[in-house]
């Protein structure tokens, strides 16, 4: 999501040496970052802006729905996963998928909503492409997780007498529609190395 493969690799692994094995020094401005401090007034303004943004993001229908989903899915998994996976080893994979996605979905969705809110507020985000940007990338990861998780919950529903997995599978279909409405370009985002 860095815009090009070189920047992504540098972010992940550090600066690469040149052909002579010499690693270029970091730009001077990087060294000065530690010396930067906010004034009390700047800090108060930043906190106020972030509190307002958090309230907007947390108040969106999709964020409320995703958090409510996690509040139902988490306890059900804690109460049922051990027994189901012991009774039927085939259940391990859908249980693992459901558990992983239920914990990641809110964080990824929050990142998408937060990034888009920063951009819409005119803040410098480093992203100017209407499709290839951090919020569409994060939203696409959410949508992929929803698809995978929806299949897992559907499998859990077909193998148990419990209505909760079927309810959660249906809930994810509604959540997917909400995320697609919030981020209509998310499916068009191309993940370097994954979608090429």
Write the SSE topology:
Blueprint: H1 5-13, H2 28-32, H3 40-58, H4 61-87, H5 92-120, H6 134-159, H7 164-182
Derived structural class = mainly alpha
Q: Report the sheet-strand fraction.
A: under 5%
Taking pLDDT < 50 over at least 5 consecutive residues as the criterion, the unreliable ranges are none
**CA gyration radius, whole angstroms:** 21 Å
Please work out how many helical segments DSSP would assign.
Answer: 7
- Share of helix, binned: 55-70%
Distance between the termini: 13 Å
What best-fitting shape do the alpha-carbon axes yield? globular
The strand count comes to 0
- Average of pLDDT: 88
- What is the succession of H and E elements? HHHHHHH
Structure description:
There is one protein chain. With 196 residues, the chain is an all-alpha fold. The protein has a domain at 58-185. The protein is built from 7 helices and no strands. Helix 4 runs antiparallel to helix 5 (92-120), helix 5 (92-120) runs antiparallel to helix 6 (134-159) and helix 6 packs antiparallel against helix 7. The chain is globular, with a radius of gyration of 21 Å. 24% of the residues are buried. The mean pLDDT is 88.
In short, what is this structure?
It contains seven helices and no strands. By secondary structure, it is mainly alpha-helical.
Give the tags.
196 residues; mainly alpha
